[in-house]
Amino acid sequence: MLFFCFMLVSIGNSQELTGSELLEKAIKYHDPNGNWNSFKGDLVVSMTRPNKDKRVSEIHIDIPASSFVLSTHKNDSLITSKVINNECFFSVDEKAITAKEELKKHKLTFKRAKLMKDYYTYLYGLPMKLKDEGTIINEKVTSKEFNGKEYLVLKVNYEESVGKDTWYFYFDPSTYAMEVYQFYHDETKNDGEYIILTEEEEIEGIKMPKNRAWYYNKDNAYIATDALTGK
User: What is the per-residue pLDDT across 37-77, written as a single tens digit (0 to 9) for each?
Assistant: First the structure.
């Protein structure tokens, strides 16, 4: 009973936070030493999906150099995409390729490489990435129950040039750890997905989610799980 009362008081006090204040507390939890802007590290991500083979990706992120490298094994070949600033380089089994026929064969495009850079740096850079230009933080913090637990919820939109989705980030009311996030393309249609984060891995001083399980908003159907499996 005392614990329940404590949680009510904690949530009540936290709801007085503005969205910007909640974000700062979450960043302090995940990146206490402000390492993200100088982050240079490696991730190994294993993706499991129903009725599909496991996919293991080796990722190198160097924020100061604006460099991103993604290597994945496909059809017994090692496919690597490297994005440095606004240039893209591809290789197969560590041999550089530039011929259109070869790029098409392996479905390698600059658009795809840039998309994967944005995808991985955004999701593993959260919540710090919510400080990026073009991010619109809703200053009203709400409280919502999810899977039987009460969370502080931060709503985020983006300037049209950045993105059109609406995001919700769920933070533990006592630690400010990010444990769930959710996005909609059109909230009135209940489309989009939610992602449950479990366990943490500390990489270069940053607490990152070890496991990310993806589900559809509309029917709670399971999509896939990403897991950090090494450094």
Answer: 999 999 999 999 998 888 999 999 999 999 999 999 887 88
Cβ proximity of 61 and 124 under 8 Å: yes
- Kindly report the pTM of this predicted structure: 0.89
CA torsion 168-39-213-21 (nearest 10°) is -20
Q: Which residues of 203-231 are buried (b: 16+ CB within 10 A; e: fewer)?
A: bbebebbebbbbbebeeeeeebbbbbeee
d(CA 27, CA 47): 26
Does the pLDDT value for residue 149 go beyond 80?
yes
Q: Which of 1, 124, 10 is nearest to 57 (CA)?
A: 124
The Cα–Cα gap between 70 and 58 comes to 6
Cβ pair 44, 229 in contact under 8 A: yes
Reported as half-sphere exposure (CB side, CA atoms, 13 A), residue 59 has a value of 24
